[in-house]
Design brief:
The protein has about 110 residues and is mainly α. The chain contains two helices and no strands. The chain starts with about 55 loop residues before the first helix and ends in a 22-residue tail after the last helix. About 15% of the residues have low confidence.
């Protein structure tokens, strides 16, 4: 396994540090009329969990996810939500599952 490149050393990264605004690229304006794109609202935070799985279980979930055109993470999220719902334990305040595919463009 190769170590990850430090921030800013990956192809396509510039000298801006994470969380700082990047200057507009004159070659790629925000919109066809030249106006800037509106700022995206912040996404709600999601919990990160280290999950240790039997390799055979991981492979089976990965194959199932690929069949459904999902990531392994999205497949595990879906399975946990289904199990919680079936057991009557899905919290009412749980955010809805993310829709598959690319998020819609916010062209306002």
């Amino acid at each position: 396994m190769t170590p990850a490149a430090p921030a800013g050393d990956a192809p396509g990264d510039d000298a801006a540090s994470p969380g700082t605004a990047r200057p507009e690229d004159p070659e790629r304006p925000g919109r066809p009329d030249g106006s800037a794109r509106p700022a995206r609202p912040p996404r709600p935070t999601r919990k990160q969990v280290l999950l240790r799985l039997d390799p055979a279980i991981h492979d089976a979930v990965a194959r199932w996810a690929a069949d459904d055109l999902r990531s392994v993470n999205a497949q595990i999220d879906l399975l946990l939500r289904r199990a919680l719902k079936d057991a009557g334990r899905l919290p009412r305040d749980a955010a809805p599952a993310r829709r598959p595919g690319r998020p819609p463009r916010d062209d306002g």
